[in-house]
Structures are given as structure tokens and as C-alpha cells.
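Action item from last week, closing it out:
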Amino acid sequence: MTSGRTAVAVAALVVTLITATGCGEREAADDQGFHQDVVNGSNGAEVTFDATLVNDPIQSGDHEHLVVKAATGERLEVDHNTKLATYVPAHSGDGVIIHGQLYIDPGPVVGVHCTHSHTSTGCPNPGWIELAGNYYE
């Protein structure tokens, strides 16, 4: 009888965890939240936003650089590490959703990095780029 109760308890825990985590659902785009993070200079903020590629991506070493225009008007560079994530087969004019870490360098240069699922001290949260329903992480 004890093993039966344990099995029921484990099953209930699994259902609770799946419900709580959304079964692997990803962050929805929050364009206004992204815009506020840029305006507030929130360097290091985790962001998810809609954007359109300004030109074709450029591969430089182990990074793919995507220049995008956010839905809220900001133009920024996305540094996508192709050593840790799959290359994004995007082209100028393509719409994407980006989830990563905001960086604001002096100049001011605004960009997003950490768009890969592999995490590290500099990138504690997994990121991704969505293009046409496919995720590159």
C-alpha cells in the first residue's frame, strides 16, 4: 500500500510541475517591457521582443551578428553564438522573436546576447531566437 501512495504522490508532483512550468513554454514577446529596459538603461536585463532583420546576418568567427529593428523602433545588434547554438537562416525583412540578455555599451550601442540554451556565469538564463516557428538556441 505504501508504494501505491508513493506512486500517486509522485504522479501528482509531476502534474503540478508540468502545470507550473507550462510544459516547456517560452517567454512571450514583451515589446513594451523591452523598450522600458532600453530607456532605463537596464544593462543585463533578460528581454523577449519582436524584431525585423535590417539586413542579412553576418558570420564573424563563432558569432552570427543580426542587425534588427525592434517593434518599438530601437535598432540593435544581436550577437548569436553559433559555437553554442544553431545558425539562424534568416534574411533581411524576416520577422523574429528574440530572447536573451540586454547590453548597453557606451556610445550608446544597444544589443542582445546570450541567445543560446547553454548557460554560464555571463549568461545565467537560456536564450533563443524564433524564426518562422523554429527555435535556434
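Closing note: Residues 6-23 have pLDDT under 50 and may be disordered.
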